[in-house]
Every structure is written in structure tokens, then in C-alpha cells.
Amino acid sequence: MSALVLLLAASSRLLASEPECFDVFDPEADGFKSIRIPSIVLASDGALLAFAEGRAANADQAKNKIILKRSRDGGRTWGPLAVVADGGDRSLNNPCAVVERDRGRVFVMYQAYPAGIGERNKKIETGYDGEFVVRSYLVTSDDNGVNWSNPRDLTRDVKRPEHVTTLASGPGLAIHLRHGPHAGRMLFPFNEGPYGKWNIYAVFSDDSGQTWKRGDIAPGAMIDGPNGKQASTVNETQLVELKDGSVRLNSRRWAGAAVRKTCVSNDGGFSWSKIEDAKVLADPSCMASIYRYTFPVGGQKSRILFSGPQSTKRENGTVLLSYDEGATWPVKRVLWQGEFAYSVLTALDDGTIGCLFEADGTKRIVFARFTLDWLTGGMDRGQK
Asked: 382 CB contacts (<8 Å, ≥6 apart)?
């Protein structure tokens, strides 16, 4: 590479503005012992809606509420905390959100655990009825997150009747398909237990959320673990639409090589290819985000984003960019060098990229906004 090209590349990197970071959820200020498990979507009126679990203790199941803050200025400032769903003594977990394109309705799925029962507890029952059944709910908003519907119980639609104990929607984002034979379908990513024996799959609706169906589990989740016992390689999962309308699952690694796990559906999320390693994407066993930034239409490039801790620990929060549907990830830039856990990507109407993430261990949830120019060091400049 010539000296002139190197100089121009360096100049481009300097010209790209640095990310801006803003606190969204702070447990002490917001009245909770802990706030974890972020989700974020852009509402149809341009407001950013940031969701999380507000916890009564530093535990996964601790009388959690599903909480929300809204931003009207691209994530720079955030309004007062609102409670989207409150289960009383039951713990509400795994907020997973999507905005339906046609009407702008916001959908959030989550699960409710029995009072005082964690996901490892052997009292959790299979099936649909009983005190110790984990249930799955849906709430919606038709005014961009200001008001919310009463919870709708979808347990029978999203949960298999036998063997399954725990459930998790996402957490993070669901998707609304744009291309292919299933365009218009809404898809939520799910995993199911028992604890440590996870399977991943999708739940979908073709009628704007009136009815829901569950797809098949992805094959190949189980491997031989220590002492000859089987262990699952997968856990919390996210979805991304590929350019032809097929769908890729990208899952947290539970066992196996310390990289993300992935598989693809060519029938709108009903069935899946065998789970395999996403070898370039390191994973210290942490939820991460995958997000369609642009489709290759109208002169645009295909761009898929990924965010997660690229380390052996939950640190070094990095954003990666793929131009070839996730086959390779040639662009990589560190967003947050310190402790970095769960994260969720989004994009604003002006193309600004946003990342809502757990920072400083899990002490606070931060929103970072940055440009494609910053991410690529100016090398994507001037291209759609």
C-alpha cells in the first residue's frame, strides 16, 4: 500500500467522530438492587425504547419487573422509568422486542418464573398447568411505548408440552422479515430447558401477532460433556435476516469451543440446519447481538453488525461488520475496553448505530451511539 493511501486512511480515521456514551439505567438512581438484560428498538415516531429487568436482588430471578425508558433525542437523554409488566412476587425475565413495520405496534415477549423459584430449581414443572410452570407472555404498545396492553399468556403457543421446563425469548431483539416467501413474518428467538440442556428455536406469526406458532428445535445442540454426560452448546440466542429472506440464528456458547454457535433456516424459522461454530466470533459465554444494518437493495451494500465481548472474559466490547451475510467479519473495532456484558444493537433513521450494553460488570446500562464512518475508519465512506 502506498504512503499516500496509508495517509488518507489515517486521516479518515481521525475525521470520524468518536462514539458518544450515555447512562440509561442506574440501579441506585432507578430504585432497584440490580438492572440487567437490555433490549432496545426504534419506535415508528423516532423514539428509542430501552427495556431491561428491574431486579429486587442481584439474582436472575428476584421479583424482576420489565422496565422501560424512552429517548426522544437519539439516546442522549432518557425520560423517567416506566414499568411495562409487573408480576408481583413472580420474576419476569428475558425482554425481547420488535416493532411491526406496517402499524408501528411494539411487541415485547418475556417469561414469568414462579415466586421464589430460579431456573436451576428442580421444582419447575413441564406442561402448561400448575404452580411451578414457567409461563411466557406478550405485551404490546400502539403509541410508541407510552402505554401498554395487559399481558397475554402465550405459553401454549411457544412451549412444547413435554420435557421443557425453562423458556427464554432472546433476550434482545426479534425480527420482522422483509424478503423472500415469508416476508411480513415476525420471528422471536427462543431457547428452552431443562437447565444446561438447552435447545434453540423460533416462534413466529404471519398475522400481525394474532396467532403464534413454534418451529422445530435446531439439531446438533448436544455434545458429550465431562463424565460422559451430554451438554448443550447453545443458550441465549438472536436472529438476523439474510438477503434472500432466510434466517440465521446466532447463539451464546454454553459448551464446546469458545465461539458463537450458528445455524440457518430456509423456511422462515420452522426448521434449521445443524448447529455449527461461528469461528471468528469469540464468546466467553455471554449474550450478544446480531443486527441487519443494510440490505443489498437500491445500490446499498449488504451489512450485518455484531456486538459482543471479544475476549475470554466479559470485557473488550467490540462491534464487527460483515459484508457477506456473516461468512466473514473483516471490520472490527473496540467500542468499550472495560467490562462489557449483554448488548443490543439498533440503528436510527439517520443511519447512526446504537448499542445498549451492560457496563462495569453489570453495574449500569449504557447507550453508545456511533457512525458507520467511525466503525470502518472511513473506509466505507462515500458508499451507500
From this structure: none
pLDDT digit string, tens, across residues 222-258 = 998 777 888 999 999 999 999 999 999 999 999 999 9
The question of whether 192 is a catalytic residue gets the answer no
Residue from 53, 60, 315, 373 carrying the catalytic annotation: 60
> Is 342 among the catalytic positions?
yes
Position 384 confidence tier, pLDDT thresholds 50, 70, 90: low
Does the N-terminal peptide bond of residue 80 adopt cis geometry, omega within 30 degrees of 0?
no
- Which residue ranges make up each domain of the chain? 16-376
Distance CA 190, CA 201 (A): 5
From the list 53, 100, 192, 236, the catalytic residue is 236
Select which of 137, 201, 293, 342 is catalytic: 342
16-376 is classed CATH 3.40.50.2300: no
Tell me the per-residue pLDDT of 54-91, one tens digit each, with 9 for 90 and over: 999 999 999 999 999 999 999 999 999 999 999 999 99
| 128 is annotated as an active-site residue | no
